[in-house]
Amino acid sequence: MSGMHRDRLNGNGIRREKQRRTVRNVIRIASLFLFNGYLTGFRNGRIFTGRTKSVCVPVLNCYSCPGALGACPIGSLQAALGTSGGRFPFYVLGTLMLFGAVLGRLTCGLLCPFGLIQDLLAKITSKRITVPKKTDRLLRYLKYAVLALFVIILPAFFRDDFGSSVPWFCKYICPAGTLEGGIPLTLADRALREMTGPLFWWKVLLLAAVIAGSVFIERFFCRYLCPLGAFYSLFSRVSAARMKIDSSACISCGKCGSVCPMALDPVRQISSAECILCGRCADICPAEAVSLRFSLFSVNALREKD
Fold this sequence. Notes:
Layout: H1 3-35, H2 40-44, H3 73-82, H4 90-102, H5 106-111, H6 113-121, H7 133-139, H8 142-157, H9 168-172, H10 175-188, H11 190-195, H12 198-216, H13 220-224, H14 227-233, E1 241-245, H15 255-259, H16 266-269, H17 280-284, E2 290-294, H18 299-303
Antiparallel strand pairs: 1-2
């Protein structure tokens, strides 16, 4: 490749990266207000109770957030599994499967408010902690354990004398719930502040740990703990939204891997279940070899290798 051609690629690449980053940021901010548009709730410390609150949103977004206009799918799933009689959650699972089949983990990369918060935290420092590959690979299975144990098994099978169960993940773990719901409501209501106990401070401590982790490890919660990301990752090979790479156009510059928030190598792991389809690799690729595409389901998608 000539020096002039390389410079042209670099110049065009910088312009495309800025344009695509702007579009991505507009989408993320719009989704933030779409899911949390009840601004009055933050002023008066009351959650929204309108009709849309019964509708599941596709992202991790606390039901108790003062601005939330919809219901968190993880909270809804636990609530359905934990009700007396143990009815199968057709609506919630159907909604999750629809979003998984159409968007996959694009919801994590472009639409999730807690994902946006993690990306902002990652900008605090340029120093990063590199997790050893073997340890990193094992830790990524934690989110599947959280999904199975705290979201499905415990709510479905561990009930009180009245036949009901608690939302285990929301009550004991969810840092998004603490940040979006617990802290704002507690600050706005003196009575709630007086009732805070060990459980509240445990969740604040857990949130602080996730925030610290997100400063030094990009998308810390997404990588290791998010049960919704674990669910959507099951659809990564068949979802309509997928990252694609044109190997014939790839110039092996390594830029795509250097910007991946999930520490993946897009050249080798373009269809990985860990990919959140954030589009950064496509933004920075000087040869336009990487792209986000929407396509119909196909058997070939199941045969793609990482």
